[in-house]
Design brief:
Helices cover about 45% and strands about 15% of the residues. By secondary structure, it is α/β, with parallel strands linked by helices. Strand 2, helix 5 and strand 3 form a beta-alpha-beta unit. The chain starts with 5 loop residues before the first helix and ends with a helix.
């Protein structure tokens, strides 16, 4: 069963997409071209965060904040038990330990009482140090960030919002991607804001965190490309995908309305 008709979407903006792609090809700046910064700025303005740092995919968008926060061996990261594998996978890749938390039976998002119980259990056991929570906005529905952020403040935990399915959504005028200390999203083609390949992005209002995220995503670079100040990875959004996403962002609101119409049938 086809859940999303990307062909019909493409027809709406075919001429704009072709012009955007042709411009990148003509300019020849396939990596770190000006469209990447343009897209980051436009997405930051849309979501309402100070910084957007684009990267290669949604998985890296979850992994890089863990690197930037120094989370690793001996640390516990709390994740919902019902989510795509990447949410927990990145914790293992950072050499920390995922702690699975039950989800609410009505929303399928992380259950607040279960989260508090899991944190208390880990503290009592003493084997791991609680460091972060990765709530997931499953099926586009934002998790209970009012409660989650209050717990995080009390317990001194970082919150990385997994907004892979929720970009374009909002709660009381605040957009998904902006609720945690860092927000992460995916531009997989079937996502609300999708490119024609892989892509991802991270959202934050923290200047120092944004600098670290950019560094870790570009081989740990410092002030210049060849000034490597830490061990990083190669995780950059390419210019062609950025150009496509600029055009897709223009129609995001219309696409969200169309999805809601289908959901109400």
């Amino acid at each position: 069963m086809q859940f999303i008709d990307l062909g019909a979407q493409r027809e709406r903006i075919r001429d704009r997409l072709k012009a955007a792609i042709d411009r990148v090809v003509d300019e020849g700046r396939y990596i770190l071209g000006p469209q990447v910064t343009e897209f980051e700025n436009k997405l930051a303005a849309y979501v309402g965060t100070k910084h957007v740092v684009a990267c290669a995919n949604g998985t890296d968008a979850l992994l890089l904040p863990l690197f930037a926060a120094g989370i690793g061996p001996g640390d516990a990261v709390f994740v919902p038990s019902f989510t795509f594998a990447a949410t927990a996978e990145v914790v293992a890749l950072a050499k920390a330990e995922p702690v699975f938390v039950d989800v609410d039976p009505d929303t399928y998002n992380i259950d607040i009482a279960s989260l508090e119980a899991a944190i208390a259990m880990i503290r009592k056991e003493g084997r791991l140090k609680p460091k972060a929570i990765i709530p997931v906005d499953l099926f586009g529905l934002a998790a209970d960030y009012e409660a989650i952020m209050a717990i995080a403040k009390r317990e001194d935990l970082m919150v990385i919002e997994d907004a892979a399915q929720s970009i374009g959504g909002s709660v009381d005028g605040k957009f998904c991607g902006s609720f945690g200390h860092v927000g992460s999203t995916s531009f997989y083609p079937a996502k609300p804001l999708g490119c024609y390949g892989d892509g991802g992005a991270m959202f934050t209002n923290d200047d120092a965190m944004a600098d670290k995220l950019r560094s870790f995503a570009f081989h740990g670079k410092g002030e210049t490309q060849y000034d490597n100040i830490r061990v990083g990875i190669n995780s950059r959004l390419d210019t062609l995908q950025a150009a496509i996403l600029i055009e897709k962002l223009v129609i995001l609101e219309d696409e969200m309305v169309a999805r809601q119409v289908v959901a109400q049938r």
